[in-house]
From TrEMBL:
InterPro entries: Kinase-like_dom_sf (IPR011009), Prot_kinase_dom (IPR000719), Ser-Thr/Tyr_kinase_cat_dom (IPR001245), Ser/Thr_Kinases-Pseudokinases (IPR051681). GO terms for molecular function: ATP binding; protein serine/threonine kinase activity. It comes from Oryza brachyantha (malo sina). This is Protein kinase domain-containing protein. PROSITE patterns: PROTEIN_KINASE_DOM. Pfam families: PK_Tyr_Ser-Thr.
Length: 175
């Protein structure tokens, strides 16, 4: 997914609805990014203010209606990375107003398990930084994940080789 988002961002496309539900696997277990219904071209951030993603994936700037850019996808990707690592769906039963208040006022972010490798935790934290300028670009996220893969003797799945975690079988409550 990181490579796919990096490609989209290189083409000035902001997906705006990055979430685990929009990660599809084909018959060969290749990941496909779905739901481009709210995607847009990344021009001028002041022109992009309408929220488009499920609340628990919304970057803080979207929650308050501030202008945003491709870094909102990076924030959402960080949440997805946590969900994939933990095999849990974040804030599934929490109402939008409660998520908004907790993220904005209390800087709520998912709790990273102690068993999570330090470098993976660092990637998650950088992606969901409250300040968009402090978040890495997706190209940098790809590089960090590839570096992590190299450190772990390529235990992560190389491009073109099927494998995966099939822990998402429940449906998220609609908002």
């Amino acid at each position: 997914m990181a490579r796919g988002l990096s490609y989209l961002h290189s083409r000035k496309i902001v997906h705006r609805c990055v979430k685990t539900e929009n990660m599809l696997l084909d018959d060969n277990l290749n990941l496909k990014i779905a739901d481009f219904g709210v995607a847009c071209i990344d021009y001028d951030p002041k022109d992009m203010t309408a929220p488009a993603v499920t609340p628990c994936y919304m970057a803080p700037e979207l929650l308050v209606g501030k202008p945003y850019n491709h870094k909102c996808d990076v924030y959402s990707f960080g949440i997805c990375l946590w969900e994939i690592y933990c095999c849990k769906i974040l804030y599934m039963d929490v109402k939008f107003d409660n998520i908004k208040s907790a993220v904005l006022k209390k800087h709520l972010r998912p709790e990273i398990p102690k068993c999570c490798p330090r470098d993976m935790a660092r990637i998650m934290r950088r992606c969901w930084d409250a300040e968009p300028v402090s978040r890495p670009d997706m190209q940098e996220v790809v590089a960090m994940l590839e570096k992590l893969d190299t450190k772990k003797d390529h235990r992560m799945v190389p491009v073109g080789q099927p494998s995966g975690c099939f822990c998402f079988s429940i449906r998220r409550r609609s908002f």
